Amino acid sequence: MTHLHKRAAAAAFAVALGYAVLAGLWILLSDRAVSLLFTSAETILWASMVKGWAFVAVTAVLLYALMRRLALALIATHRRELVLERERRQPPPMLVAIAEASTDAIYAKDEQGRYLLLNRAAAQIVGKRTEDLVGKDDRAWFPPEQAAHIMAIDERVRSTGRAETSEEVLSTVAGERTFLATKGPLLGADGRVFGTYGISRDITDRKQAQRELQAVADDLSATLHAIPDLMFELDERGRYVKVKALNEVLLAAPSEQLHGRMVSDVLPAEAAATVMQALGAAKESGVDLGRSIALPLPGGIRYFELSVARKAVQAAQAQHFIVLSRDITSRHVAQVELHQRNLELERFTRVATERELRMVTLKREVNELASLAGRPLPYDTSLVDAAEAPAVP
């Protein structure tokens, strides 16, 4: 029992004891006085009734005064408790100053979801003054479905006693906005949950940027999947960082075995040297195009054309390069075949030309013999003779 309880018990005992003593003395002394003052039985009966009513009246007045004093004391105690409770629930001035300085919505609610505290940023969401919002719950300004969703989260936080972070889409004076809300329980000195606190940050612009970035990423992914070329990301030492291949049979090794390895460990020496030369040229000028390499693959030798671009990186980061490797085997084979056919055509043309020159020489010899024999020239060589005649200066 506390000291206050002991004092209250002692006071109650003193009152009861005083009442008992007063009542006993009244009965004892009043009866003796009546017996001394009056002799007739009727008079004594009347006097006893009077003194009894007088006792009732006096004790009633005393009881009223006592109860009134007790009631006033209880009212004063209750008022002090209410003031203390309000003071306990009021945030410290420094906390209020910090909340007002924040651009995030900061608020606190009681067990019924009514606002105890909110900063200007929170009030601006619904276009109200803070004093208009205190004491009301979310149903006062949010649509019913949104208010029910918010209050359900608050109730869950109060019942579980654990903080939660979630996204909330709310109707505001600026239109529909998305908030990242962190809510947790408010605990009293006794450890009992008496409400919730919350911090909500407007992430609408960030969500829009994420959606736009995702759309760009999706477009880029679709574009990359439409490119048949092999794609690699290499650092300046020739180490494989990323590999993208729609047809892995064109790779010198499976993609999972390429990550972290050097081109010199995977490609033939001549091909690796060509790749490093391309990286060096791209490091200086930004791009390098047109180099080709030959790789012995299980299906035979394949030929690839390299396109290298220097990748933009932040300061102090290692330089990386994007390398496109296009399978030009069919083109290479076609070029070789075309070259062979050109060589054959040249040989044929040379043979045909030599044959024609011999025929012209033979015709001239026949014409000379015919001329010596006085006969008409059998062959017309004027076109050839004109072509061979020296130009007139």
Features:
alpha+beta; Beta-Lactamase; five-stranded antiparallel beta sheet; 12 helices; 10 strands
Secondary-structure blueprint:
Elements: H1 3-37, H2 41-89, H3 93-101, E1 105-110, E2 115-118, H4 120-126, H5 130-133, H6 144-160, E3 164-172, E4 175-187, E5 193-202, H7 204-226, E6 230-235, E7 240-244, H8 255-258, H9 263-266, H10 269-285, E8 287-297, E9 300-310, E10 320-327, H11 329-372, H12 382-388
Antiparallel strand pairs: 1-2, 1-5, 3-4, 4-5, 6-7, 6-10, 8-9, 9-10
Helix pairs in contact: 1-2
Describe this structure in words.
It is a single chain. Strand 8 and strand 9 form a beta hairpin. Helix 1 packs antiparallel against helix 2. The model has no long low-confidence stretch (mean pLDDT 84). The termini are far apart. The protein has helices at residues 3-37, 41-89, 93-101, 120-126, 130-133, 144-160, 204-226, 255-258, 263-266, 269-285, 329-372, 382-388; strands at residues 105-110, 115-118, 164-172, 175-187, 193-202, 230-235, 240-244, 287-297, 300-310, 320-327. The protein is built from twelve helices and ten strands. Among the domains are: 94-208, PAS domain (Beta-Lactamase); 229-327, PAS domain (Beta-Lactamase); 339-388. By secondary structure, it is α+β, with helices and mostly antiparallel strands.
Q: How many strands in all? A: 10
Shape: rod-shaped
Q: Outline the biggest β-sheet.
A: 5 strands, antiparallel
Oligomerization status of the protein chains: single chain
Short description:
This protein is α+β, with helices and mostly antiparallel strands and 393 residues long.
